[in-house]
Amino acid sequence: MFIVQLHFCDSLIVVVIESAESGGSMITARFAGEQGRTVFALPGRVDQSESHGCLALIRDGATLIRNSNDILQELAPMLEKTVSSKLSNLSSDVSNYPALDSDENLIMCSLANGERLDSDELQKSTQISISKIFATITMLEIRGLIKKRTDGRYEIS
Q1: Taking residues 136-156, what's their average pLDDT?
Q2: Mean predicted lDDT score pLDDT of the chain
Q3: Which of 116, 106, 108, 70 is nearest to 89 (CA)?
Q4: Is the pTM of the predicted complex or chain greater than 0.85?
Q5: Given this model, what pLDDT does residue 38 score?
Q6: Collapsing DSSP states into helix, strand and coil, what is residue 54?
Q7: How many Cα atoms occupy the beta-carbon half-sphere of 71 within 13 Å?
Q8: Is residue 46 within 8 Å of residue 55, measured between CB atoms?
């Protein structure tokens, strides 16, 4: 059994790969479904007990994964909606600034709602490489969107 959670600020989808009918993966998938998250399932062979959980999820409405494009097609509109929603809730008015690229959006989203994160925490929450984190936060600082605190953490200006 294997479970993958892909997230952008909040968990958007859960991917369950080859799960038996009982266990932690199924519990997580059911909680995700109850919270309105999209659940994907990738069963193995139908004659193997390790696939019965995923087959049950698909029967109950989970999305069957055939390849990575299945996930990307479902995730793209959700990410656009989430980015728009998160950016509209930022404490600073970013609409007065030139358009933000995807990495800048991820960082701004991570710092939304008063969050104060250091570069390592930003890397973990955005999954952007640490070198790209430093380049992006530098540009956001130059544009006056974020500031570095004396404790080394970043926050929205």
Answers
A1: 89
A2: 80
A3: 108
A4: no
A5: 86
A6: helix
A7: 17
A8: yes
Q: Which two tokens stand for residue 4?
A: 């993958």
Asked if 87 and 140 count as a contact pair (C-beta separation under 8 A), the reply is no
Proportion of the chain in helix, strand, coil states, percent, rounded to 5: 50, 20, 30
Alpha carbon of 29 to those of 10, 59, 65, 128, 154: distances in Å? 15, 13, 15, 26, 34
Q: Which residue has the higher pLDDT, 11 or 121?
A: 121
Instruction: Kindly tell me the sign of the dihedral angle through the C-alpha atoms of 54, 55, 56, 60.
Output: positive
- Look-up of token digits 């104060």: 116
Q: With beta carbons less than 8 A apart as the criterion, state whether 137 and 154 touch.
A: yes
Write down how long the chain is: 157
Strand order in the sheet with 2-8: 2-8, 10-17, 38-42, 63-64
- For 59-77, write each residue's pLDDT tens digit: 999 999 888 788 878 777 7
Torsion region of 144: left, alpha or beta (phi above 0 gives left; psi -120 to 50 gives alpha): left
- b/e per residue 15-28 (b: at least 16 CB within 10 A): bbbbbbeeeebbeb
The single-letter DSSP state of residue 46 is T
